[in-house]
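Help wanted!
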Amino acid sequence: MASSLAAPPVRRRGQGLRALVWLSPLLAGLAIFLVYPLLATVFYSFHRYDLYTLEFVGLANYEYLLSDERVWQSARNTLWLVVFMVPAQLAFALALAQLVTRIKAGAGVFRTIFYLPSLVPMVAGTVAFVFLLNPATGPVNNLLSLLGVAGPDWFGDPAWSKPSLTLLGMWGAGNTMVIFLAALLDVPKHLYEAASIDGAGAWRQFRSITLPTISPVLMFTAITGVIYALQYFTQAMIASRVASGATDSAGSTFTPGYPEGSLLTLPQHLFHSGFRDYELGYACVLALALFLTAMVFTLFLLRRFRFAEEAS
Amino acid sequence: MRLIPLAVAGLLALTACTATREAPPTLGAQPKPSAAGTEPAAAALPPASLELWHGFSTDAEVKAFEDAIAGFNKKFPQIKVVAKKGIQDDQITSAIRSGKAPDVAASFTTDNVAQWCKSGAFQDLTPVIQQDGIDLSVLPAASRSYTEFEGKRCTMPLLADAYGLYYNKALMKGSEPPKTLSELTELTKKLTVRDADGTIKVAGFIPSFQYYENSPSHLGPMTGAKWYNEDGTSAIGSDPAWKQLLTWQKELVDWYGYANLEKFRKSLGDEWGAEHPFFKGKVAMIVDGEWRNAMIANDPKAKTLDYGTAPLPVADDKPDLYGSGFTAGTVVGVPKGAKNPQHAWELVKYLTTDTDSLVTLSNALRNVPTTKAAAESPKLANDANFKTFLDIFAHPKTSTLPANVNSVFNQDAFSTFLTSWEKGSVKDLDAGLKDVDKRINDKLKLSGG
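Answered by r_m:
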């Protein structure tokens, strides 16, 4: 009796070991690519590290964070993108997807046309946008002047630079449109038929049937959109550089975030601190701040969507 | 938590691997070859293959550099030099960090010299310079300044850029180039062509700091403005010369109207292409480097341009500055971890001090040669427009951006302020400049300066 009672723990230990073996690639991956970099980031954040010398400086890097004007400026810019650019992109992509589902003839052609911009390489698309929106020679302002409207200095005016990037983001929202399109086509038709018989209009149908049904997809696109906005780098950097007309020569340097720091995002500031100024310890502090911000936004969105789901 | 020991073990294993790697010889540690004759080192150095990284990339530049190396090979036939083109500073830094440094590395910018010297990423050349009896007084003070940091000379100047004024003779309508800032203002107003609504057709001079080569470091010498105090802290807020320059500049910007000037600036062509506004007759006077002479000569349309060069106009109350300007240039050194440091030094020494080599490079690239002997060499291709820059380079008051560990950051901090300033967003200039000082000094503290 005693031996039969002792047998199961032995089998459980064997199973546990086997499970650990099967899980080991995942655990090793997590350890190498997540845990170690995270611990190393925390470690270096307490040091002055310029790629050559390592010196413990306590909280000096964290103290500098509080006095660094560029951090708050870049954080405000990044927050602007999260609050305005992401919803604008999602709304535009959803509207396009709705439009495509309603087109009777040539839906495939329109779907392709709306999707194509997302295939254009980021750098090329951004450079093209800066040229199109050039205040002096760009076709957009030339067209506006024909209509008697004085076009703004799109990428040269701090008040217009982020909205200009938002336009660029909306133009390239093809991927999100395809995701929404799949979700919209998945909404059961009979729900619309029933609502229609009950006298529900288009807006009521959209609010009470479409939105709740596609809410998991909305949550996915919103979270990935926010994470993408928090990591926004290439377009802002290129637009800034091209619009400034900055030159690379002895005694000259490019000022990131042109105009007046309005396109400086947190990831750009992190990159410049680490790999232009070689303040890698401080760059680690910025990386941790960015990581925590992404976590907070993700948790907030998850809670909001869960709440909305429960309410519906 | 169980993963931490695993990560630590892995880290220790990696460290152990690094620790067992044999350290390469350092410069000066190898015995100095000695033999009879005029070229003792050349005869006594054992055969070796040197890796040289440089930033030159166009076919003409690469060929010029290879021609200079060919001269070295005649002197040192047993040393093979393998040159790698188009290298940027971050690649040099990464290579040194990973223990795969080349024997010799050259950089177009002087921005990283302080960091390289301070950290020891580039080896201190002082012992071998003294050992070989090289007289550094053949270099102007400005060139000596941007190639060393806090007494450590870890690079040598290879070729230099000097900045002066270019003027389009047709647009000048017989006027002489300005010598003072007042004359520059007066001439700018006279030569500028505008529509009734303020739209600029031809600009006399573009005062914007955002225009091509109008960086604060290039324009600062017009009032003798200095960047740093002796202790490395910012002098921007305390040196009245900056305020003098900015006040003059803002008045001229306001005369154009910032919006008009920006619209005109953004309508102009690429600085490095055939559409350059100076080539096209859209700007009468520009601040530019000596290399613009070669660009004009090599451009099929611009080569017929009738232009002249002159030193930068200077503050009315500082006439002694006239003739000076800004200079910086290519630097070359021996990185830490070079496999053949003694051979590498011979190459650096040859490229930076051999008159024929410097003249060959200067004639091909149309940059200013750094030594007095090369500048005075009869073999140096010279004309009145190029000579202006040789004279600016040799002027005792010509200045540079001194080496600083935060060089790029500091220029960035100041340029950001200047954009706000010329736009009219800064209400209190003194307070704004003090704020720039604070940013630079806070950063210096973070860097352990």
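OP: Thanks! One thing I noticed: The longest strand of chain A covers residues 47-49.
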